[in-house]
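Hi U.,

Before I forget, here's the chain from the pilot set. I'm dumping it here mostly so it's searchable later in email.
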Amino acid sequence: MKKALMIVSVLMIAVISTACINNMAVQELNNKAAEFMQKGDYESAMNRLQASLDLDSTMYETYYNLGVAAINAKKYEKAIEALEGGIKIKPDYADFYYSLGIAQSELADEIMAKTEEEENAKPEENTDNVNENNPLMEADKRVEASEDKAKAVEYKKASVENLNKYLSMNPNTEDKETIEALIQESNSFINGDDIQSKAE
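Structure:
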């Protein structure tokens, strides 16, 4: 019995000391990430924050910071993933919804900019210019552009939902007008208002 008790106590000490070492490592990684973010080195900050999450995936602050770093690095899909992970841990933290809405809106804009760039590419820039008059290729391009537009609309809808949730949780925020303008802009995109105005 004494031997079993001694083994259990040794195991508990090992678990406690491992937890302390992990906490110190997590804190060090988070501190280093904050330094990188202040310097504008968002990629390095993201690497440290991801390493921190690998050690302790229960800290909602780390998810939030990773999301913000990813937004600044223009890695919107990574930002969305991090922020959604944080919401699972702390769904009542309003800033998650604001940042998630921003990341979703930016990703939609990025998708549409890429689609427009591809549509406006000059024939001499097209490496497949041998097949440029091929009607099937043109149809494939139109389908792809339509799918991209549908993805962008979905991201804009999610953005509006998250920004509205942020405003409902934080109705007296200083940047309320800016957020409402972003919501209005996203709704115009969803409804196709911006495409109609470009066509006119």
